[in-house]
Structure formats: structure tokens, C-alpha cells
Amino acid sequence: MAYLTGFHAIEEMIKSSKASGLSCGPLLVAKAGPRAKEIVSLAINNKIRIERTGVFDLENLAPDNRGIAMFVSDHIYGGGGAGGGNSADISLENFIEELGDKKNVLVLILDEITDPHNYGAILRSCDQFAVDLVISRSRRSAKHAAVISQTSAGAVSWVPQAETPNLVRAMENLKDADFWIYGADMDGEPVYKKDLKGRTALVLGSEGSGISRLIYEKCDGFVGIPSSGRIDSLNVSVAAGILLYDIRRQMSRK
103 near 199, Cβ under 8 Å? Predict the structure, then answer.
């Protein structure tokens, strides 16, 4: 059971549920300022049930609320992977089938990203740079639905995602579909020097230990971000934004 409390997160969940035909709510309202009133109107227009509640009761259910919170059930959000999670969930098999002859395709593979704040921030970058699919390992990656949705500013409701119990097999399936797979690594070739046009998948490793051995061995190469800082490396969500930007920049070139 989860409650969304961020204005952006609630708003985007309402919009995406309308697009997908899934139901969500109710929207709990204790007190409503101007921004909250806009969301209440949006919910009413989308036939989402509104429930008035006391400030104390809402604090118990969703401590980070701003006067409103929306209930999100497991079958809609954050719990199912392909076929069972949020409205943006798809299967890798269907994704590959529907590619047709599309040439420039960007996939992001998340290998053990466990911090929900990083996960959400990465999804926000994925939305900004039009990532076609995010693949993560089922049951092992960050699954704190409310935190992810808030940190992503609601992008989790829009970014296509697929979960798999076996990332190595997923990488093999991508390679069979003519993808080249590159791991993010501090010692990798500078991202702006690597030709990353075409069907490209980028692997991001965990916050602590990086890319796991079997997945590392499956990568076709490695890309990095040249830096001159005094600390070890960039935060994984910051690195994701930089790398995704440059890949999309290259793909936009003729």
C-alpha cells in the first residue's frame, strides 16, 4: 500500500491513468491550497473519487503530504514488472517485436540500483531524454513507489519500463535485435568520442559496487565521463543524465 504525496507525482499519475485506462485513487484531501485545488479539479474531471479527511488522519497515512495524498494500489503501481506494474510497464519481448525497422533506439539497463531517490532521479532523466525502455532486475531494484514517483516528478508514470529476473538474458535478447550494449565506467572511453548512434543500450551499475561481473562481461564496450573532481565519481543519477544527454545528442545528428 502506498500514498503519493508530491503534486507532480499525483498529477502525472492521474494523467497517465487516463491515457492507459487504469483506475487510481481515491484522492484524500485534508486541506487544499491553490495547487492542491488544481489537482482536485483534475481528479474530478478524470472521475477519480475524492475523500475528505482530517489533517491528523492524513498525517498518519502519508506524513509528507501537502494537504492531499493519493492512494495507489499494488496492481497499478510499483509491484508487477511486465504485465503488472505501473501504466508504463511493458515486456521486453513486446518492446523488441514492435521496434520494426527503427534505427535510433535508446535502452537503459539498471543493474542493482537500490536507492529509490537515485532510481526516481534516473527515471526523470529518462523522460527528459526520451529513453525508449528502462530494464531492471525484478525483486532486487528499488521499489519504494512513493519515493520513486516523487523524486522522478511523476516521470515514473510515463517512462516505459520492463522487469526481468535475468538481466544477462535480457542483454542477449537485445543483442539479437541488433543492439550494442555499453557499460558506464569511470575508465571507459569518453562518451562524446564513442559512436553511440543506432540501437544502443546503456548499463548503469549499483551505487556501491558498479556493474556486476556477469553483466560487465556481456557489455560490448564501456563509456565514461571525463572529470577533474577530487572525489571518486559522480552520483549514478547525475551520471545517467549526462550520458543519456550525449547519446541522444549523437542520435539527433544526421
Answer: yes
